[in-house]
Design brief:
The protein has 15 helices and twelve strands. By secondary structure, it is an alpha/beta fold. Helix 1 runs antiparallel to helix 2 and helix 5 runs antiparallel to helix 9. The radius of gyration is 27 Å and the shape is globular.
């Protein structure tokens, strides 16, 4: 079946027509979703067939629930597409769309929809719909596989996305994050929003951010690895090279998330072309201002105070013209959504083969990391969150809203006190993936607080002090510390919008230690034989 082509005026008409809908979702959802497919220029759902295995893209897909007592029951997915999504549809209503009592016949109750939008009841209904969609996804037979997306639609109002790209049974989480997972219907006028939903329908795995950012980050890491080798070949010690590169990398990231003026560092590097002798003085001036939170003559602006161990030394190593170009190329990349964990390739590629073998240095693919991190750390936390969330919803329904908020805050306090240790952390990708999943969970907690009407910003948050690491290689330890801070700040902006972090932006937690995880000693004494030989 070929997709239909829809012009921009048709999109506007579609939005305006459905914006006024407000009745039971059974009456509207199939028509709405069929027209939505036309708007997205994707194929419409297919007719249901007798052979259930052939129902790969249909309305009312049947699934069988197996209960603990040996009985079974059948449920039906509102819209299902194999390998792509499970969709659950609801129909909310606006205050001004509520039926007028005098116009409703006394013999028939008017349809009001799931709940009134903008109320706690609506938030709870959407939360329940997401849970229902996940139950359907888990009930699918193994032959179907788990879809990477859940979609919760409020007909005529919004489309919410939840993802689980590993498709291994993990929790579905807001996509791309808890601040942007719900798409208002009006946003369909934007081409990038339609392209996003089109991908959910046709190529959902292409939206996996770890795959996209990993490709970008790998290219950046290769350039920086060449730069590290070049600087060390010039006679600089690995520890000094590592510290210098970590400051440069963080500054590149900082300009792309607006912690320092946009493009400020890149333009500074470009202005030094042909006069690399002034590179150390110019860059050290910037880094001192970042450490102190003072006015930067190079960027002509007062900067945030970064502090922390990273900028205690503002040393910038002298570079050649070729090395400056490598820095400029790296700085021009988009660091906003860079995958911090993959910086393990930086230390891996910079090590010579003998040193790499001795340290066992190798970048561990994310899927392997999650096989350990999810069942040991994240899934137990998510079980606790599900219990806290259920308790909070029950309290809210009973009119005990303050107690519901306390219940959610109690879990958040617990989440912010969890400590995780990696005694051979390398460049920190195990710790980073753990931090990312904890920050993602924290985003859901903060969203729940907002849904319960809590306006006060939480003073505590999940941060790098909870992730502890030991590492014998100084380069790897420096990268691990940086990886956690970049990851933390990325998720800070994803869960808290444009709110700037508290100063100092970087804190010296000493959570990554450059030392042996097994042996601790005060001195080395050589044991000798009777002749004095070792």
């Amino acid at each position: 079946m070929t997709a239909n082509t829809t012009s921009q005026p048709d999109i506007t008409s579609f939005i305006e027509r459905w914006a006024s809908s407000g009745a039971a979702e059974r009456a509207n959802y199939q028509i709405f979703l069929t027209e939505l497919c036309d708007v997205l220029n994707v194929p419409r759902p297919e007719p249901t067939r007798i052979n259930e295995d052939e129902n790969a893209y249909v309305f009312e897909k049947a699934v069988v629930f197996h209960h603990g007592d040996g009985t079974t029951s059948t449920g039906r997915i509102d819209l299902y597409k194999r390998g792509c999504f499970v969709l659950e549809a609801k129909q909310g209503s606006d205050q001004n769309n509520q039926p007028q009592p005098e116009l409703v016949p006394r013999t028939r109750r008017a349809r009001r929809g799931t709940a009134v939008r903008g109320t706690q009841s609506w938030d709870q209904a959407m939360m329940a719909a997401r849970g229902q969609a996940e139950q359907y996804a888990r009930a699918l037979p193994a032959s179907e596989g788990r879809p990477p997306f859940l979609i919760v639609v409020d007909v005529g109002h919004s489309i919410a996305l939840y993802s689980e790209f590993s498709r291994t049974g993990g929790a579905y989480v807001p996509f791309p994050d808890s601040a942007r997972f719900r798409i208002p219907l009006r946003d369909l006028e934007r081409e990038e929003v339609r392209e996003l939903l089109r991908s959910v329908w046709t190529d959902p795995l292409a939206l996996d951010p770890t795959q996209r950012s990993a490709r970008i980050t790998r290219d950046i890491a290769e350039r920086l690895a060449r730069l590290a080798k070049s600087l060390e070949a010039s006679g600089h010690k690995p520890e000094r090279v590592a510290s210098f590169l970590m400051r440069a990398i963080f500054t590149m990231f900082a300009e792309d998330v607006r912690l320092v003026p946009k493009s400020g560092f890149t333009e500074l590097l470009e202005s030094i072309r042909g006069q690399v002798r002034i590179f150390p003085d110019m860059v050290e001036s910037l880094w001192r201002a970042m450490a102190e939170g003072s006015f930067s003559p190079t960027l002509r602006q007062k900067l945030l105070r970064f502090n922390g161990g990273l900028f205690e030394s503002a040393e910038a190593l002298p570079v050649t013209d070729e090395e400056l170009e490598l820095l400029i190329e790296a700085s021009r990349a988009d660091w906003h959504d860079v995958e911090p964990a993959i910086f393990g390739t930086l230390v891996e590629q910079a090590l010579d083969p003998v040193e790499r073998h001795k340290l066992g240095a190798h970048y561990t693919p994310r899927a392997y990391v999650e096989r350990l991190v999810l069942p040991t750390v994240i899934e137990p936390l998510r079980e606790e969150w599900a219990a806290a969330q259920a308790a909070a919803v029950t309290l809210a329904k009973a009119g005990k809203l303050d107690e519901a908020i306390v219940e959610v805050k109690r879990f958040h306090q617990h989440l912010c006190n969890v400590r995780v240790l990696d005694p051979a952390c390398g460049t920190g990708n195990f710790l980073y993936v753990t931090l990312e999943h904890m920050k993602r969970l924290e985003g859901e907690v903060l969203t729940a607080l907002e849904d319960f009407g809590e306006q006060q910003r939480e003073l505590i948050e999940v941060d790098p002090h909870q992730l502890l690491g030991l590492e014998v290689n100084p380069r790897a330890a420096a990268i691990a510390d940086l990886v956690l801070w970049i990851g933390h700040l990325q998720w800070h902006f994803r869960t808290r919008g444009n709110a700037l972090p508290q100063e100092p932006v970087l804190k010296k937690f000493h959570n990554i230690e450059n030392r042996d995880a097994v042996l601790a000693y005060d001195a080395v004494e050589v044991v000798t034989d009777e002749s004095g030989e070792p």
